[in-house]
From TrEMBL:
It is found in: Cytoplasm. GO terms for biological process: GMP salvage; guanine salvage; hypoxanthine metabolic process; IMP salvage; purine ribonucleoside salvage. This is Hypoxanthine phosphoribosyltransferase. Its cofactor is Mg(2+). SUPFAM superfamilies: PRTase-like (SSF53271). Coiled coil: none annotated. It comes from Acetivibrio clariflavus (strain DSM 19732 / NBRC 101661 / EBR45). It comes from the Bacteria.
Length: 182
């Protein structure tokens, strides 16, 4: 796995520091409020697990699974729910926890979906942001680290189902992508 890495783009230390800071801000902003964190599977799971341990107020949590890239590095723009949340978010504050905002299409869809279910509000928290590729505007209340327009893996993000367990955010060698991109 490590021999496929070309470059570490964001180190685990930088991620840890950012996550701590986000946890602190979220704890302060939602003090005394009913907060539901919704993690987006599978990519958001590493960030989610790190983030909740830096939140010092009571929270509820749930997960939604949506279709993403499959084996390709290009977004189809089509969002499909594979697993919905189970809990009722009526009158609660919702925070969607994502791995990375790229075109914004996934988050736009999720935000609209949850807003139709009568929450107090729906905000977004992302570990990584790639603003240069945005197609639709989605406000990000809690942004981790802004990255350039490169396809990355690690810290929850995959390529062909692999590399999610890399602790840093990395760019793979071109030869790895060339062999698999459809
Ligand atoms: P969007 O809908 O904003 O284009 O992207 C949604 C999802 O696509 C992200 O949550 C992430 O799972 C995936 N994605 C976007 N950019 C990358 C990338 O550089 N690497 C990987 N592995 N996944 C990405």
């Amino acid at each position: 796995m490590f021999e496929d890495i070309q470059e570490v783009l964001v180190t685990r230390e930088a991620l840890e520091e950012k996550v701590k800071e986000l946890g602190k801000r979220i704890s302060k902003d939602y003090e005394g409020k009913e907060l539901v964190l919704i993690g987006v599977l599978k990519g958001g799971v590493v960030f989610f697990a790190d983030l909740i341990r830096h939140i010092t107020i009571p929270i509820e949590m749930d997960f939604i699974s949506v279709s993403s890239y499959g084996n390709s590095t290009k977004s189809s723009g089509v969002v499909r729910i594979i697993k919905d949340i189970d809990i009722d978010i009526t009158n609660k504050h919702v925070l969607i926890v994502e791995d990375l905002v790229d075109t914004g299409l996934t988050l736009r869809y999720l935000k609209d979906l949850f807003e139709d279910r009568g929450p107090k509000d729906v905000k977004v928290c992302t570990a990584l942001d790639k603003p240069s590729r945005r197609k639709v505007d989605v406000p990000i209340a809690y942004n981790g680290i802004t990255i350039p327009d490169k396809f990355v893996v690690g810290y929850g993000l995959d390529f062909g189902g692999k590399y999610r367990n890399l602790p840093d955010v990395c760019v793979l060698k071109e030869s790895v992508y060339d062999n698999k991109v459809d």
